[in-house]
Amino acid sequence: MILSDILKEAPALDDGRPAWSREEFEQQLRIKGESYHIFHPFNVMLNTGKATPEQIRGWVANRFYYQIAIPVKDAAIMANCPDREVRRGWVQRILDHDGFEYGLPGDANAGEKWKDEGGIEAWIRLGLATGLTREEIVDLRHVLPSVRFAVDAYVNFARKAPWQEAVCSSLTELFAPIIHKQRLATWPEHYPWIESAGLQYFRNRTSQAPRDVLQGLALTLDHFKTRAQQDRALEILKFKLDILWVMNDAMGQHYGVRT
Ligand code: AHQ
């Protein structure tokens, strides 16, 4: 399916087929996990200790482009969403990635400064721990064209699609805790040369991702009611799974895949 297809208005709201129950719909979403990029040969290489330092640095530098796109994508969803209750939850994703410093000087809460460097900074620290320089991470010199196109397709979808469909596209995170835990369980042993503090991003996501999914899944199960809409939700999830997959294709083609 090409991007313009996925951006098409949702099909007829109801084609008469009986809708799945909430439980069955969730199960259908979770079954899509079979196509998650944890099974991509490039990722398998990374998490089974077969990657060279150059392949790891290439992965970190390319995935940085995805990481800096996430808060932009989430801000697009916020901008399209009129529901304050939804935004109150969704805004945490932007703070998680961009970081924040609350209670600036002069503010009544100045003494209660809350500050968090954020996930993008933690990702840069991962890059530094793998031997990349901050400059070559943030200037995106290593980002491959196909990675850029895939990530841009995700952000453009979030900007143009109804906000509920963009929420649904984030549900690849149903499967993310496993991949973060897998890295934390395998990288220290396979790549002892990467300082442990560099893996903090993955530690952060093991708690942030499940919290994100709680909101994203509930909104999705609530919004996509008819069977035609539920099929649309599965199409959207597949689109996003393909985005993660082709990023690995591009990195595998450029840096090689050692089995
Ligand atoms: O670090 C990741 C992250 O912050 C997010 C946000 C979420 C989204 O809104 O699409 N998806 C996502 C993912 C992150 N890490 C990926 C990884 O493999 O490290 C997985 C990815 C996802 O599953 O969508």
The spatial strand order of the largest sheet comes to: 1-2
- What pattern of helices and strands is seen along the backbone? HHHHHEEHHHHHHH
Within the CATH hierarchy, at the fold level, what is the topology?
A: Heme Oxygenase, Chain A
What ions, cofactors and ligands are bound?
A: ligand AHQ
> Main β-sheet, in a few words?
2 strands, antiparallel
Tell me which CATH architecture applies here. Up-down Bundle
Uncertain runs are none
CATH class division: Mainly Alpha
The average pLDDT is: 94
Count of individual helical segments: 12
Number of domains: 1
Rg over C-alpha atoms, rounded to the nearest angstrom: 19 Å
Describe this structure in words.
The structure is a single chain. With 259 residues, the chain is mostly helical. It has a single domain, classed as Heme oxygenase-like (Heme Oxygenase, Chain A, Up-down Bundle). Helices cover 67% and strands 2% of the residues. Strands 1-2 form a two-stranded antiparallel sheet. Helix 8 packs antiparallel against helix 9, helix 9 packs across helix 11 and helix 9 packs across helix 12. The chain starts with a helix and ends with a helix.
